[in-house]
Design goal:
2 domains; 10 strands
Length: 231
């Protein structure tokens, strides 16, 4: 993992009385690789009655779940979200006609292995049912907390170091922390890889997809005010 620091702002100011202030903004930055993959699967089904369309959609979701269990993928989380049933309204030449119902559901599969495990999961769900899916890479919650702590530590060290440079250059022998202003600016947006709509059969001649997550740049900043007394 490559890391580097970048200082953006160094300013000095004064306040009333015999005290003066040194205001610095420390910044930190690092490049990290996502350690989780998220498959967003969209299932849909059409039937003449709500019970038929519901049962058909539930069957699809079950087939996806069973395919994942048989795939050999160990580190994954399966959840079903956003279930909708609407009238299947067909428009033809300016007129509308209702023809049964259409149901849809979002299946979220979070895979902890972004290499071999992810490939197995993708092949399993695509062979199970006809569906469309999106693939995202993201940083897991456990990794986020560690990165946030490291970034804040580096930003504070950066602020302290810059204050020391200013103090030495200005002949200030003693100073102390007066105020720390901090609101976390670190964000971890997921990275979209690609979207596809297909059903792959076990008999298809194909080569497994090559998947590689790009590094993400994350950063943080903190403003620190140091106070020193004028002789």
């Amino acid at each position: 993992m490559k890391t580097f620091l970048l200082t953006i702002l160094l300013t000095a100011g004064t306040c009333l009385g015999y005290s003066q202030q040194i205001l610095v903004e420390g910044k930190s930055e690092m490049k990290v690789l996502p350690d989780e993959a998220v498959l967003l699967l969209t299932l849909s089904e059409t039937a003449m009655t709500t019970s038929e369309v519901t049962n058909a959609l539930n069957k699809k979701a079950k087939e996806v779940s069973e395919a994942l269990k048989k795939s050999g993928v160990k580190d994954y989380d399966f959840s079903a979200e956003n279930y909708y049933v609407n009238v299947n309204r067909i428009y033809t030449k300016g007129t509308a006609k209702d023809s049964g119902y259409v149901a849809s559901q979002l299946i979220r599969v979070v895979v902890g292995d972004t290499s071999e495990g992810l490939v197995k999961a993708m092949e399993a769900v695509q062979q199970a049912v006809d569906l469309s899916f999106q693939l995202q890479f993201r940083i897991s919650e456990g990794k986020r907390k560690g990165y946030e702590t490291q970034l804040l530590t580096w930003a504070l060290e950066d602020a302290k170091r810059q204050a020391q440079v200013i103090a030495e250059a200005m002949g200030i022998s003693e100073y102390q922390v007066h105020q720390v202003d901090y609101t976390s600016s670190t964000t971890f947006p997921p990275v979209m890889y690609r979207a596809e709509a297909m059903m792959m059969k076990a008999s298809d001649d194909r080569v497994g997809p090559t998947l590689q997550a790009d590094e993400q740049t994350i950063s943080d900043a903190v403003r620190v005010t140091f106070r020193f007394e004028v002789p």
